[in-house]
Amino acid sequence: MKCYLLHKKIIFKDVPMKRKILIFFFSQILMNWLYAQGPPVFSDTPIFLGLDGRAVRTFGQWIKMEKSSVFLIPFGVPYNIRTNLLIGVVFPLVWKSNNENGMGDVSISAKFLYYQKDGLKKTFRMAFKLEEKFPTGTIMGSKAYQTYLGLISGYISTKLGIYLDLGYRAISKQLPDNFSYNLSIGIPLMEVKYPPRQVNLYWGVHGILTVAKLQQISYVSSAIQFIPDKRFLVEGGIKVPIKENPSVQERRNIIISLGGRVLIF
Amino acid sequence: MKLMIKVLLLIGLASSTPMFSQPAIDTTRVKIRVGGLACPFCAYGLEKKVLSIKGAREVKIDVETSQITFYVIGKNDLSEKVISEKITEAGFTPLKVTIQRRKHHLEDPEKNEKK
Fold first, then answer.
1. How many CB pairs below 8 Å do chains A and B form together?
2. This prediction's pTM
3. Do B92 and A118 touch (CB under 8 A)?
4. Which terminus has fewer CB within 10 Å in chain A: N or C?
């Protein structure tokens, strides 16, 4: 279960880049000091948890916007068909501050692990991901079919984790398709042991490139993760835009996320 | 004096050999060196998979040495192949599997192992 408890947008307009960077690092230090716990996962992972198909995952996401706020809880049910094949369904439930509630866009995904090279205290894995998102959203949703095909790779050792996912999203209703990338690097701050009691730090770069207009949105991120137990972790992170789509009249912002995950068996 | 020595010997024997009170049971100790064990949070699935082996208990996972140790109580037909399959199903690579079968007492397999 993945549980994002807070996902807050802070308006960040007309702030010089130098100050943005300062705020970015300061907020990172502040978060480490305040929470000593973790980040949202801004990148996907090629490691399947060996769940035997008996897991239920969910996460909550609270988005505070200028005029309203939204609380999202996508319920995800992953199922391991084989050791190297994982399918999942996500049903997002949405509550808005104006008392509207309903369902978001339902998605079905499959991850296929096609390369795995394990060594002592390290692993390198690559997986394909195929996702279909349906326009079932009554309150929040794209109102279009979205098909995503991506390649997820990761090198994870007890001292370092490097995650990269690249993907292409085709969107119906003549909406522009896009390429996306997420690169994250993580390091553990405490001794790696089991049952875990661990603090991890993550940094990342993320972007979406709209194909038709060749417009790019990119972010840098920083996150921290605290694992107090073998089935539970809490995490928090911050994303700062470094390049935004000039045609969209959106105000620049910082995105702060807090949450956690629980593995239910 | 002789009687006292006999009594002391009996007490000592009784306290040092619990087999008088409990019968010895077949205990299998399994040690596995696992490849790809780099994420402690991911090891939960591995522990769960190992515990799905009938009679498995006392699972210890040492991430630093990539070693899993567990005990199986009672007679079993565990083989390296079966254990390796379990590890593979959990998403990891079995590098070395060691199976040791002995007769032990239930309370503390590890303590008996040291003896």
1. 89
2. 0.75
3. yes
4. C
